[in-house]
Amino acid sequence: MPRAERPRVLVLTGGPLDGADGCDVRLAADVLAVLPGADFVWFTPRYGARQRTGGRGRPVRVLSGTGTPHVTGRVQAALAGAVFARRVDLVHAILTVGRGFPAYSWLRPLLLGGHPVLHTVAGVRDGRDLARARPLGTTVALSESMARRLRAAGFGDVRVVPPMIALDEWPYLPRPEGFPVVLFAGHHHPDGGAETAIDAAAEALREGARFRLVLAMRGRPGQDRATLDEALRERAGAAGLTDVEVRGYVEDMRALLASAHVLLFAPAVLGAKASVPFTVLQSLASGRPAILSDLPQFADFGHAVLRAPAGDARRTGQQLAWLLDRPRSWDVLAERGRALVEDHYGPERFAARYSALYRELLS
């Protein structure tokens, strides 16, 4: 089909697009949903696909029983990508910079051919991986701080396109009634913030705050999730917290946020998570104030959130106690968070920026 009519775009992600959740998969699904002017090619699991992509085009099935990006699925995607990259007008790679990315980036001419490549960096697992990598083409960062980091690593032409939130799917909700609920949502990881959330909750309890702590934990392949969950319960009990729930993966995040009063998200590092975590955007869109660690990636949230030094459970707990004790401050932060999402993370801005990038690279 002539490029001027409907460009053909290959979307590459770390795992099948209709498979397990992940920041790169979610970003890719959003791209397909808001850019109707292109014909897309993407990879989907042969079995158990969730059918959540709304883009026009062709899914290519790969062998992945769970949809999780294991080695077999990555190899299939790389080989199939090498074939389809030569049949499209543009390759849009939406990939986290992880351990395998440096080798992939050096093989870019062999694997992706000569067509233009747009690479959205969903996150950076380890700075050492970034130092060994090369740019695939024009690079997109999710935040200004990540753009500076990529430019310092030699990625050159780096644009910033923040992720999007479908505002109609995440409406602003009134403050929930009843006993306060404090929510942490993240992965099992030593620096992921769950332990800091528990220690901060214990500090808030000593400050006189009363609430229920809910830890919504997602595991990674190979982890013993039951043992890790029990370790968090034991840590909470040792800290004097009696009203604690440790949950696994949450299918209905909207309902969980609707029941929460505050999102407590204080990781020391983001690791493979998106440099602008979707959980934080969903919380702010729903009118749920967030207390975050003071990482550079979170500076873009400005005064719409509260921040404490990373790993400082005492300061984080004091902020939690302060917020739960001041309903008017809660209301101000809730309104600021929703306004920030509407102004900077809406679908229209997201679609306009990617449409402009597509036009530029295809011209």
Short description:
This protein has 363 residues and is α/β, with parallel strands linked by helices.
Give structural notes.
This protein starts with 7 loop residues before the first strand and ends with a helix. The protein has 13 helices and 13 strands. With 363 residues, it is α/β, with parallel strands linked by helices. The protein is 38% helix and 20% strand. α7 crosses α11. The protein folds into two domains: 174 residues, 3-Layer(aba) Sandwich (Rossmann fold); 164 residues, Glycogen Phosphorylase B (Rossmann fold). Strands 3-2-1-4-5-6-7 form a seven-stranded parallel β-sheet, with helices on both faces. The protein has a six-stranded parallel β-sheet with strand order 10-9-8-11-12-13, with helices on both faces.
Oligomer: single chain
The total count of helices amounts to: 13
Radius of gyration: 21 Å
CATH superfamily of the largest domain: Glycogen Phosphorylase B
What is the CATH top level name of the largest domain?
Alpha Beta
SSE series? EHEEHEHHEHEHEEHEHEHEHEEHHH
Record field, number of beta strands: 13
Tell me the overall shape. Answer: globular
Label the structural class: alpha/beta
Number of domains: 2
Helical fraction equals: 25-40%
Low-confidence stretches: none
Strand content: 15-25%
Strand ordering within the main sheet: 3-2-1-4-5-6-7
Report the major sheet: 7 strands, parallel
Kindly state the mean pLDDT as a whole number? 88
